């Protein structure tokens, strides 16, 4: 599959959707991380109950949102920091770019 290339304008147009998806991923990820082991222990006793439902829903959100970003051609790097290729969470515009080989360390400012 060929990696999608974004212009700065295309990336900026997607920032609201990416920000929304990253917030949903963060929230669902926290539910999964906090409940996984606890749920496993409870499921052995009574099937998990409401916590099982919450855990399952969080997994569905994670899958849907990560797949949505992937389908748009956006690469999720770190959901907690909001780092995607292109970086976006907490930024109101796309300010830096880097090639696929240079990574974060090789980023350059788009505007002076």
Features:
112 residues, two-stranded antiparallel sheet
What is shown here, in short?
The protein has 112 residues and is mostly helical. It contains two helices and four strands; from the N terminus they run H-H-E-E-E-E.
Can you describe this structure?
With 112 residues, the protein is mostly helical. The protein has one domain (8-109). Helices cover 56% and strands 10% of the residues. The chain has 2 helices and 4 strands, in the order ααββββ. It has helices at residues 8-46, 49-72, and strands spanning 75-78, 83-85, 96-97, 108-109. It has a two-stranded antiparallel sheet. Strands 3-4 form a two-stranded antiparallel ribbon. The model has no long low-confidence stretch (mean pLDDT 80).
Number of domains: 1
> Which secondary-structure class do the elements indicate?
mainly alpha
Shape: elongated
Strands, count: 4
**What is the N-to-C order of secondary-structure elements (H for helix, E for strand)?**
HHEEEE
Mean pLDDT: 80
Q: How would you characterize the largest beta sheet?
A: 2 strands, antiparallel
Give helix % range: 55-70%
Distance between the termini: 34 Å
Low-confidence stretches: none
Strand content: 5-15%
Please list the strands of the largest sheet in the order they lie side by side: 1-2
Oligomeric state of this protein: single chain
Q: Number of helical runs?
A: 2
| Integer-rounded radius of gyration | 17 Å
